[in-house]
Every structure is written in structure tokens, then in C-alpha cells.
UniProtKB/TrEMBL annotation:
One of its GO terms (molecular function) is zinc ion binding. The keyword Repeat applies. ANK repeats lie at residues 114-146, 165-197, 196-228, 229-261. It comes from the Eukaryota. This is Ankyrin repeat-containing domain protein. The lineage of its organism: Eukaryota, Fungi, Dikarya, Ascomycota, Pezizomycotina. The keyword Zinc applies. InterPro entries: Ankyrin-KH/SAM_domain (IPR051631), Ankyrin_rpt (IPR002110), Ankyrin_rpt-contain_sf (IPR036770), Znf_C2H2_sf (IPR036236), Znf_C2H2_type (IPR013087). Residues 1-28 form the C2H2-type domain. It comes from Cladorrhinum samala.
Length: 293
């Protein structure tokens, strides 16, 4: 098969079509700074060219300070010289490096790990910008932490292990009090209720994160949902002495009467939280089965 423009012979039509694209160069730069409106054979080359208009020529590696001529060469340098740079960047909150490694299928991201694990890790560290980047690049907003892979990768970067096995990003952010991340996830319609497991609301209530509890309630969290051990958010808040959270939950319609051994009034009294005991009794909790000390 001959190319009509240069006469070169090819074995099959696929090779010929691939060659013809080099003649066509149909991808043209339309940037205002590009005087000659250069043409390119593929979108990847065009994208690399367009980035040169928006960056200062010459850059520097943020980790070893080596001078790099172009931004795409910086990506190659990060991959070769800093093997675990993706995880280092995610953990440290280096949004620029994460963005660089994600764009155009950057090779700096480990091939055997998808964006979901990185999403849960960024959520646990409270990096809202990186969370949004990963979600924009296909991470599952309902992904759950995998303890074995997670601890291995965290160990490689020197970070301390954190316990979020089986938790969604919203649950992780609620547990560790990262309000900005919670807001980002809620804006993207993350599920606020988990069936048969601890919910983001119970994690936030147990840790006393009142502002996050308020956000979750406004997003439609079930105030009376029960977790793995039949506990409610009100029971956990009362047991841990978080009066502000108890008030928020009661105002949202939380039941002050418990079930079985999980009774908010009884647990608050056992832990010596006098103000919470009074608050619960003022809202209908009474001594006796289902609500007593």
C-alpha cells in the first residue's frame, strides 16, 4: 500500500493510516501565543506543545532541586529518580506533583495500584485538593480502604499506618475531622449512610467533630442509624462526652431512648458526663428499661 503523498510502501492499511497522520497534522495549536499555529500528528504532542505556552521555560525538581528543561521531562525525572514519588506526593499534599503524574497517564503512579487507594489515603491525610484531583481522574468516591496494600505503600513512604480498613472516603474524612474534605465529597454526592456498618455520622459523633456532624445531617444522614454493634451516633457522642454533638443530634431528632445495652443515658452516667445526663433527661430520657442508669 502506497502513501499518495510521499510514495512510501506499507504492509497493511493500519500502518498506512498511521503514517498519513504525520502528513495531515490536523491537530493545530490555537493558543494566542503560538504565532505560526503549529500542527501536530496526535493530541498528545499538541497537549505537550500547548503546555509550553503556559509555563516558564525551565523548571526544578521539588525534591532534589535538579534543573529540568521542560515540564514533561520533569515527569520522567520524578518517575526514574524518585520511585515512590506518587505516594510521597499524596501523603505530603503536594498537589502540583500529583497533578503532573496523573495528567497524560503519568508513569510516576504505580501500575498495580489504581486511584481508589490513593483517594482514601489523601482523604485520611486531609488533602482536599488531591482528593478532587483523584476524583476527576476516575477514582471511585465510594472506594473502601484495603489494609494490606495500604500499609505496604504507606511503609514505603515512611508514613504512620492509619486504621481505615473497609471505610469509604467520607467515613475516613469524618473520623479524622477533615472538614474541607467532607465538604468536597458531599458536593460530589458521596453516600452519607452505610447499610450494616458504621456511618460517617457515627465516626464524626464519636470523635466530637461537631461541624462535620452538622454537615452530614444537612446532607441527609440518618440520625438514628445503627452501626455494627447496634450503636447510634447519639450513644457514641454521649459515651465520649461531646455535649455539643449531643445537642446537634437531639435537635435533629435523635431518639434519646436506647435499645438493649446501648442506652445513651446509662452510658453517659457511667462515664460521669453530668451535663449530658441532664441534657438527655431534659429531652425525655427516663430511668428504667430503654433509658435508665
Amino acid at each position: 500500500m502506497l502513501c499518495q503523498q510521499c510514495g512510501r510502501d506499507f504492509k497493511d492499511q493500519r500502518q498506512l493510516r498511521q503514517h498519513v497522520r504525520w502528513h495531515d497534522k490536523k491537530y493545530r495549536c490555537k493558543h494566542e501565543k503560538c504565532r505560526d499555529k503549529r500542527g501536530f500528528a496526535c493530541q498528545k504532542d499538541l497537549a505537550r506543545h500547548q503546555r509550553t505556552h503556559d509555563q516558564i521555560k525551565g523548571t526544578q525538581c521539588p525534591y532534589c532541586n535538579r534543573k529540568i528543561s521542560r515540564l514533561d521531562n520533569l515527569e520522567k525525572h520524578l518517575t526514574r529518580a524518585h520511585k515512590n514519588i506518587f505516594w510521597v506526593a499524596v501523603i505530603s499534599g503536594d498537589e502540583a506533583t500529583v497533578k503532573l503524574l496523573l495528567q497524560d497517564g503519568g508513569d510516576g503512579k504505580p501500575k498495580d495500584i489504581d486511584n481508589n487507594m490513593a483517594l482514601v489515603l489523601a482523604t485520611a491525610k486531609g488533602h482536599a485538593g488531591i482528593v478532587n484531583l483523584l476524583l476527576d481522574n476516575g477514582a471511585d468516591i465510594e472506594a473502601k480502604g484495603n489494609p494490606r496494600l495500604t500499609l505496604r505503600e504507606i511503609a514505603l513512604t515512611g508514613a504512620k499506618p492509619i486504621g481505615w480498613s473497609g471505610m469509604t472516603p467520607l467515613a475516613v474524612a469524618s473520623k479524622y475531622g477533615h472538614e474541607a474534605v467532607v465538604e468536597a465529597l458531599l458536593q460530589r454526592k458521596a453516600a452519607v449512610n452505610n447499610n450494616g456498618s458504621e456511618s460517617p455520622l457515627t465516626y464524626a459523633a464519636c470523635r466530637g467533630h461537631a461541624s462535620i456532624v452538622k454537615l452530614l445531617l444537612e446532607a441527609g444522614a440518618d440520625v438514628n442509624a445503627r452501626g455494627c454493634f447496634d450503636t447510634t451516633a447519639l450513644y457514641l457522642a454521649a459515651a465520649t462526652g461531646h455535649e455539643a454533638v449531643v445537642r446537634l443530634l437531639i435537635d435533629a431528632g435523635a431518639s434519646v431512648r436506647g435499645r438493649g445495652k446501648m442506652i445513651p443515658l446509662s452510658q453517659a452516667a457511667r462515664e460521669g458526663h453530668v451535663a449530658i445526663v441532664k441534657l438527655l433527661m431534659d429531652h425525655g430520657a427516663v430511668p428504667g428499661p430503654g433509658g435508665s442508669v
